[in-house]
Amino acid sequence: MRLTNFTRAFGDNVIISDLDLEIGKGEFVVLLGRSGSGKTTLLRTLAGLDDATGQSVRIPGSRAVVFQDARLLPWKKVWRNVALGLRGLTGLVRDKAERALHEVGLGHRLDAWPLTLSGGEAQRVALARALVREPELLLLDEPFSALDALTRLKMHELTLALWQAHRPAVLMVTHDVDEAIALADRVLVLDQGRIVTQERITAPRGERSDVARGLRQRLLSALGSGAEHASVIPFRQSHEAFA
Ligand SMILES: Nc1ncnc2c1ncn2[C@@H]1O[C@H](COP(=O)(O)OP(=O)(O)O)[C@@H](O)[C@H]1O
Ligand SMILES: [Mg+2]
């Protein structure tokens, strides 16, 4: 996907200005930015949810979005939530949904009601619902920020496994620097509608502790927190600082 010279304003309020962004096939890009920096606005454009008439926006036809809350329909069973919008014979559609739910470790909850799921399970369903569309571009808007730390780590593993199996291009929004470092091929920092920092991470995932320290400082500093304190801010606090 590619945006060139992209600008988005609400009335006189310019949220994103002159932004160039390109994401390669199968690339995993994480977008960091403070609250209100325009992350969701950008993501909505890439999802095709916003009118981008007259702008240079190239996005693949098959896209899927996962938001911070799973947005499941409570009156539909889990598998029907995953199958939502899929066309075809009920049996085949159910098979597809079932396969996706197996992939996210919820093969045993096909007939469960959404309200009986934990937060982590609900996000797994949301991932399955995205996957079943076989998107070329997977958009994730702070998908794990409402989950506890342990569940979040499990979701990171799952996200990477799904990405490796299906290889969509990913744009994931987060305000969690450690999440960005754990997952990304490339991290972007958005500030006042511009990309102010860009870091490519070549170290294999799982072997990033050596590069993480310097990287974390640079990213935190780009987020405007003052790098000199970055290394001593415990995870929870740094997490909240950008919430
Ligand atoms: N539909 C809208 N109408 C007017 N202003 C909006 C709209 N959507 C977002 N904004 C404004 O755009 C700015 C960026 O919002 P958003 O993209 O949601 O930020 P982020 O996701 O980085 O927290 C905010 O100041 C917000 O108030
Ligand atoms: Mg947002």
From TrEMBL:
Name the enzyme group at the top EC level: hydrolase
ABC transporter domain: residues covered: 1-217
Q: Which SUPFAM superfamilies does the entry mention?
A: P-loop containing nucleoside triphosphate hydrolases (SSF52540)
GO MF term set:
ATP binding; ATP hydrolysis activity
| Coiled-coil region(s) | none
InterPro entries in alphabetical order: AAA+_ATPase, ABC_transporter-like_ATP-bd, ABC_transporter-like_CS, ABC_transporter_ATP-bind, P-loop_NTPase
Query: What Gene3D superfamilies does the record tag this protein with?
Result: P-loop containing nucleotide triphosphate hydrolases (3.40.50.300)
Q: What is its EC number?
A: 3.6.3.-
Transmembrane stretches, start-end: none
Listed A to Z, the keywords are: ATP-binding, Cell membrane, Hydrolase, Membrane, Nucleotide-binding, Translocase, Transport
What the record says about family reads:
Belongs to the ABC transporter superfamily.
Q: What is this protein called?
A: Sulfonate transport system ATP-binding protein
Q: What is the source species?
A: Novosphingobium fluoreni
